[in-house]
Amino acid sequence: MGSLAKVSIICTVFNQADFVEEALDAVLNQGYHNIELIIIDNGSQDSSKEKIKNWITNKEKFECRFIDLPESLNYCQAFNLGLKQISGDYIIDLSGDDQLCEGHIEQSIRALQKSPNAAFSFSDAKLLDEAGKIRSYYNREHVSDLKKFIENGSLYQEVIKGNPISAVTVIFDSKILKELGGYDETLIYEDFDILVRLTRHYPAVFSDHQGVIKRIHAQAFSANQYLSRNSSMLPSTVKVCQKIKFMNQTQEEDQALLSRVLFECKHAIWSANFESADELLKIATSIKPRPMKVLIYQFFAKLRLDFSWFYPTITSIKSSLRKYF
């Protein structure tokens, strides 16, 4: 593979003119000298395209290609266009509103090379809100001390059940990602599905550093996960859960899926996304033993009571409390 592995960065941009130059500057500041950068503008309607072109003209210092899409594709389709063009040993999926922290590539590649069977590495992230406050993805006593051990290795059950991986920090082994066909283009979002498919067959490795600054703002794609009455993302979550049921091999894995399905179902009901709730409950009823919670959720799903007006308040309160506990 050579003394310095080649890293391909696919930066996908959609109406992120306020952030894209900082995202690209952070790539320059990595201090890693074997980078291939592919920038995809996914049909932006703001000034993102102009800012990207200006950045390439004035600041680009390494291999760089620009894919200018006249109309928006879903994120997975746009990313896969870049995936077909990359030649690196490893791949970073970078959103146009996030930033790589200095040294992220070097530290992650070091971890991957120490774990040659791993499909990807992941690290901690800095979550930056609109007020400028930063917190880490994983709880820390201090800047450098994690409160609990972060699991490595086989993470399939953990990925099904919750969110043990900071997806924005992932660096993929390109050969493995390509062998799996890249992202599933029938889905609206990518991270849950690709992490499930990878961890089903391969281990992952954690690198204890803060690798990416992820912006938390109202325009962020993830903010629409449980959009009241009209989530475009929940149907993709349902599809991934259906895939998992097919891939599962043990009762323990099914119980992990049941936990995830009930979590998603609760939010689907509260946000009045009842069609998705119905599909999630179909999965839940196929898994035994079946807890009383399934019957409770079935009852509320049938009532079709719209509490979505109150849902943002509940999630805001929970989010505030989570910062302190």
Automatic annotation (TrEMBL):
One of its GO terms (molecular function) is transferase activity. Residues 8-121 form the Glycosyltransferase 2-like domain. The keyword Heme does not apply. Keywords: Transferase. The keyword Transferase applies. It holds the Pfam family Glycos_transf_2. InterPro entries: Glyco_trans_2-like (IPR001173), Glycosyltransf_2 (IPR050834), Nucleotide-diphossugar_trans (IPR029044). This is Glycosyl transferase family 2. It comes from the Bacteria. PANTHER family: GLYCOSYLTRANSFERASE (PTHR43685), GLYCOSYLTRANSFERASE TAGX-RELATED (PTHR43685:SF11).
